[in-house]
Amino acid sequence: MKNLSVLASFAGTCLLAGSAWAQASASLSLSTSEGASASGTGYMSKYRPKAGLVEVGLFGGVLLPSKDHNFQDESKPQQAFKSIAPDLGLRVGYYPLAFIGGEVEGAVMPTKTKDGEAAGLWALRAHVVGQLPYWSIVPFAVVGGGRMGAGSNAMGSDGDPLLHFGLGVKAPIDDFLMLRLDVRDNLTQKNDASNGTLTHHPEVLGGLTFVLDRKEKKPEPPKDGDKDGFVDEKDACPADPGVAPDGCPIKDSDGDGVMDPDDRCPAEAGPAPDGCPPRDSDGDGITDEMDKCPTEPGVAPEGCPDPDPDKDGISGDADKCPTEPETKNGFEDEDGCPDTIPEQVKQFTGVLQGIEFDTGLATIRPKSTKVLDDAAKVLLEYKKLRVRITGHTDGDGDRENNVKLSQARADSVKTYLVGKGVDASRIETRGAGPDEPVADNDTPAGKQKNRRIELQLIQ
After folding, report:
1. Is the separation of the CB atoms in 455 and 389 below 8 Å?
2. Cα Dmax for the chain
3. pLDDT grade, residue 217 (50/70/90)?
4. CB neighbours of 194 closer than 8 A, spacing ≥ 6?
5. How far apart are CA 125 and CA 201, in angstroms?
């Protein structure tokens, strides 16, 4: 146990010294060249661990064999080895990550027994290495297992399972070589003790480690076989010098005199400037270049379908019958379809028979209300109808007064219809006076015909 205490004290001293060296080196690097340290050229950053390194090392040191070892043939008595044995060995390590790796190593420790007879210790070990990869000076810890044994004439040959752990520090010399210090304890079965009771074999090791593949591999420059400035992997014609965009020579594939880079139809001969043949996709006689509706047959000058093919003045979606012209008769003239005026509407167009007024006045006589009520019903049923009511007089009397009287009588008819629920905006009125006679004003019968109310459908 005394040996272990001494070794532990020595290990602490080594690690403190390594830490102080790391801090001093880092301080020196930062104080002398802040830019160099930041860019990774100072010592404390230049040799930092990285992933994927392989380390091969030689080491030497001392082992302090336990007096209570169990390396003996059962038929022979146990003897202690000398208190210090020289230690030589080899190790190989692989670090898949910068902060952790694994190592295997073998060591031999030639020594003597207390009686002076030649003896030899050996160890085969594998362990995990955890390290701090922040500086070139790298503190680390190991823990692992293996087997340790010994051979001598006095005690025969024997080996026991081994558990070991320790601390250490690495200090690079250059990219490929570094110094290493390990302080460890090896635990094996204790002699004359119950199974699982362990004894200690402290160990101090120093060595040289060769680092493989620390240098960054410079990527090979991409190849440009035809020397046209386009690397082969992006060159569509790697054996022929060419131009942008694909590294191929300029071609005129269809032989139309328009080079492929400027030819919108490189597989079809056509005139400049685009190298495409004239097209008429919809077959309407207007080339696509001039056709504003190239996928729909149309008419000149734009090549689009005629918006009003039946020429009824109603176009697009508003025309419910685009191939049949609207019948302009004042009845549903907005839908673009041919139609006829319903019979119940017809009877109230033209002269409204049976409409009478008091002589010289615009007052409707009661006997006329039946006709007007029927007319109101028709207008209320056909809500889209618009009408013009025109009043007419005979030629007797002053013309100006007759015009005013005819207007007043037309307005009276409108007022009556509105009173029955017809929207006033659907009715226009007009006073024609004596100007539009339908019969001779020289006879009583003719004058009676000229005194009339007419109802006309309007759009």
Report:
1. yes
2. 173
3. low
4. none
5. 14
Average pLDDT, stretch 140-158? 92
b (16+ CB within 10 A) / e for 36-61: ebeeeebbbbbbbbeeebebebebeb
Which alpha helices (DSSP H) does 330-425 contain, by range? Answer: 343-346, 369-381, 399-419
Distance from C-alpha of 79 to C-alpha of 110, rounded to nearest angstrom: 15
Q: Cα(232)–Cα(250) distance, rounded to whole angstroms?
A: 18
CB 457 within 8 A of CB 386: yes
Tell me 425's DSSP state: G
Total residues found in the chain within this entry: 459
DSSP summary character for residue 399: H
Nearest to 69 by CA among 196, 163, 201, 194: 201
Find out whether 22 and 30 touch, Cβ atoms under 8 Å.
no
Reported for 104-113, long-range contacts at CB under 8 A and 24+ positions apart, including other chains, are: 105/57, 105/59, 107/59, 109/63, 109/65, 109/85, 110/85, 110/86, 111/65, 111/81, 111/82, 111/85, 111/86, 112/81, 112/82, 113/79, 113/80, 113/81, 113/82, 113/152, 113/154, 113/155
CA–CA–CA angle 19, 125, 155 (5° rounding): 120
pLDDT, tens digit, 9 for 90 and up, residues 287-307: 777 777 887 776 777 767 666
Is residue 266 pLDDT above 70, yes or no? yes
Using the CB atoms, write b or e for 385-405: b if 16+ within 10 Å: bbbbbbbbbbbeeeeeebbbb
Give, for 171, the enclosing helix (H) or strand (E).
Answer: strand 156-172
Distance CA 218, CA 221 (A): 9
